[in-house]
Structure formats: C-alpha cells, structure tokens
Amino acid sequence: MSRLKSRIVGLIEALGPLPVSEYMALCLSDPQDGYYMTRPPFGREGDFTTAPEISQMFGELIGAWIAATWQAIGAPEQTMVVEIGPGRGTLMKDIARTLGKIAPDLGESGGFRLIETSERLAATQAATLGQAARQRFEWHKDIDELPAKPMIIVGNELFDAIPVRQYVKTAGGWRERAVGADGAGNLQFVAGAGSVDASLLPPDAAAAPEGAIVELAPARSALMQKVAERIAGHGGAGLFIDYGHATSAVGDTLQALLKHAYDDPLAHPGEADLTTHVDFAALAQAARHAGLQAHLLAQGDFLLRMGLLERAGKLGANASQEVRDRLTGEVERLAAPDQMGQLFKVLAIMPPGVAAPGFPAAN
C-alpha cells in the first residue's frame, strides 16, 4: 500500500468517507504525496500527452489567436500574456516564439507570465523555456499575484484536474458520492450523507435511474469567474481548451490515467492522474455572470479555422516525405473527430461586442 493510500485509509477510519472532491484533491495536490507534486506527468515518461507536446502547430495557432485577439481588443499597452497551468512549458515556448515573429510589441510590452503552484513543474517550465527564462518570464502561484493590467490568458487542460463533487441517485434522493474503505483497507465508492439542491442538477437528472451520477464543479466555476472578473475589470480576453461536454448532463466521467492507460480511480492514489470531463456550459455561464461573452467550438473546428491545414502545408512544403507524414499524423490527432477534434472543446471569453478570432460571429 502506498504512503498516500495508507494516509487516506487512516483519514476514512478516523473521520468517515471522504467526498470525491476531497479524495481528488489529496490524490493530485497533497504537498507530500500528490500526483502533480511528486512526478513528471506529461509526455512519454509521464502518464499522458497534451496537445502542445503532440505538435508545435498547436502552440503556434494559439499564439496567432493571442495576436489577433490583442488587435481585436484595441492593442492595449502592457497587455500580459498569461498561461495558467503551464504543464512543461511547451505551449508557452511556442506562443512566445510565435508572438516574437508576428506581434513582438505585445510580448515586449506586457511580458509573459506563468501561473503554477508546483515548484517541481515551475523548474521544468524554466528549463523548457531556456537559459533566459527567468529574465523573460515571470512565475506566480495565483492569478491574484498578477499586476492590475490587461491580460490575454490561456489554459490548456486546466479545468479537468480541478476536483468535482459527485452525487449519486439513491432510493432516498441524491446523495454526495464519497470514498470509503472496507475492513481490509480497500477503497470503495459509497453514498454519503450530503445532499444537493435540486435546482443545481442538470435537466435530465429528474428522469435519471437509481445509481446515476451527477458531477458539479463549483471550484471550476469559481476559478472561471475569478478570471472573468479580472478581465472585465482590467481588460483582455481568455482561451481555455479541455476535454468535456458542451451541455450539462448526468454522467460519471471520473477516470484515472497511469502510463498512458486507463486505471481504476481508487487503485493508485497519488500515482495516477485523476480527471473528469469539463462542463463547458457551466464555465460559459460563470464568464457571462462576470459580464463577458462566451464562445465555444470543438477543438478540431477551431484549429482548422485558425489555419491548421495551411500551417501544416507550409511546414511540409520543402520537407521530406517522412516529415510530411508526421505532420499529417499530427493534424489528424489534433483535429480528427475520432481523436481530439471533437472531444476537446475551446472556450473563448471576450469583452462585450468584441468578436473572438477563429469563432463564428454569432455565438
């Protein structure tokens, strides 16, 4: 039994079952044994691969979106380029390189900022960004540490790892789903004592059968509202890419990834990545409550509208057949409906009356 699992079993024995949200938080962010605090999660040596690691074209197109958005909001001086949850720093590296070519005034004016809570990951990001990283880039633990200036903020696979609350339908109504332990120290899901306000449930919850699961993510909505309120107050825009659904609905999406394969979410706490699908309808609602407009597209549609095929063609124009084949594979993985193209969504939050580059005018 791992050290974190032993501690979790001890907590359950002392305090009773842990809500799924608390279990996720311990598994991912415990200072001593949490997944993101103790191991490299990204790439081949980790447990999953993100879009920036798949292809430089992803980061280049995000950089192009940032440049176009900066112009759309009036190119305000001292606009910061911010990434929240920067992973290994690959996306920021590609963004900074792209902006250096197509919008150098933007990077030089407001600078580049990374919001990262893990010291381990911050060190990895600095190494990815190069020897001059600490002079050109600034790190912050929280969005509240940013100066009061306009910002264009990006988050890729940020919200999926923020813990959610799960509720299970029982004969006695909806009860909060929790993690308990049997006498042998094995973890198991149980129905806890907590209930939920029916007004917070998705429309299909009333007809759901017994045993159905609903996921609510107040922490995700709170973070989105915090970001949106800052943009509403100081100017800017935001772009968030994650896997999830466009409308709120009943369903259990809690999953674990270990060495690029699915794992039992209760089997290896602290050793596997835990995520759930993102409810983009809830995030869009939080942004609108702050006074911003929200625009949503499937990742494949967004990247194609931003020029993915054209960029691949340019990179492959004078390249070998091997390189062209690789680029074709990258395009397929990023944009094909049966790969990342449909499951992943892109949410842009913009000031009222400002069109979002890459998105249809009416949204």
Structure description:
With 363 residues, the chain is α/β, with parallel strands linked by helices. Strands 2, 3, 4, 5, 10, 14, 15 and 16 form an eight-stranded mixed sheet that branches. It has a single domain (37-163, 217-350), classed as Rossmann fold. It contains 15 helices and 16 strands. Helix 13 (308-316) runs antiparallel to helix 14 (321-335). The mean pLDDT is 92.
Find the count of extended strands (DSSP E, 2+ residues).
16
The global form is globular
State the domain count: 1
Instruction: Report how far apart the termini are.
Output: 50 Å
Level-2 CATH architecture: 3-Layer(aba) Sandwich
Taking all Cα atoms into account, the compactness measure Rg is 21 Å
Strand content range = 15-25%
Q: What is the helix fraction of residues, given as a range?
A: 40-55%
Based on secondary structure, the structural category is alpha/beta
Catalogue the unreliable spans: none
Largest sheet: 8 strands, mixed
CATH class: Alpha Beta
Roughly what is the average pLDDT, rounded to an integer? 92
Report the CATH topology name. Rossmann fold
| Count of DSSP H/I helices | 15
